[in-house]
Design goal:
Blueprint lengths: L2 H10 L4 E5 L4 H11 L3 E4 L17 H16 L3 E10 L6 E2 L12 H11 L7 E12 L2 E13 L15 E3 L11 H7 L1 H15 L1
Parallel strand pairs: 1-2, 1-3
Antiparallel strand pairs: 3-4, 3-5, 5-6, 6-7
């Protein structure tokens, strides 16, 4: 029995129901763990010894989330959930969408991505946009999806220093400040990601 099989057997034998979050980000996993409570134990890719880069080659958020979750199930024999997030801008026909993280190129920084977005909207009166996060949950061979959406619009210039990604240019609906100008608690209360996590937690706890 190789180490992956041993790892899966050991983790399945634990009292808590183990779920792998297909991420290397410990803070993201901690956030979900706090919401799930003691019923489940959330582990990251690092925790199960998954160091490989899981390619996100699908043309939808759902597809990329499925690829990551199924990779863990197929290669490590563990139940898993994974997410993907996209910024969908109405005037750009839903772009950057699935290419949000690499909008300005494979090695682009957040600043590069925002610069390209603001340039694309230079003359646009319609700046309506939404962030959408999709989770794929694979448990006992069954697949489920949940999503969270935060509607808003794109600012004319960057504002704020907190957050990450496109936060300095996205103003959520009903607000007069960008995500980057909000506290973490305030952002999580209305954000796409916060909503998706809460939907996923409810789905898991009810199953």
């Amino acid at each position: 029995m190789d180490w992956k099989m041993e790892n899966a057997t050991r983790m399945k034998s634990e009292k808590k129901r183990v779920l792998v979050f297909a991420t290397h980000n410990a803070n993201k996993a901690k956030e979900v763990q706090q919401m799930l409570g003691p019923t489940f134990e959330v582990k990251t890719l690092n925790d199960i010894g998954c160091d490989e880069d899981i390619p996100e080659t699908a043309n939808t958020l759902e597809g990329n989330a499925r690829i990551k979750a199924q990779h863990v199930v197929d290669n490590y024999g563990l139940d898993c959930f994974a997410d993907d997030t996209g910024l969908e801008v109405q005037a750009l026909e839903g772009r950057p969408g699935v290419h949000t993280a690499r909008y300005a190129g494979p090695q682009a920084s957040a600043s590069d991505n925002m610069a390209k977005l603001l340039n694309a909207l230079t003359d646009a009166e319609d700046r309506v946009a939404q962030f959408r996060t999709v989770f794929c949950i694979v448990r006992a061979g069954k697949e489920a999806f949940v999503e969270g959406v935060c509607r808003g619009h794109i600012a004319h210039e960057k504002s704020g220093v907190d957050g990450f990604g496109y936060d300095p240019v996205f103003i959520p609906e009903g607000m007069d400040c960008t995500f980057a100008e909000m506290t973490t608690e305030a952002k999580n209360a209305v954000s796409h990601r916060g909503k998706a996590v809460r939907f996923m937690v409810n789905t898991l706890l009810e199953s």
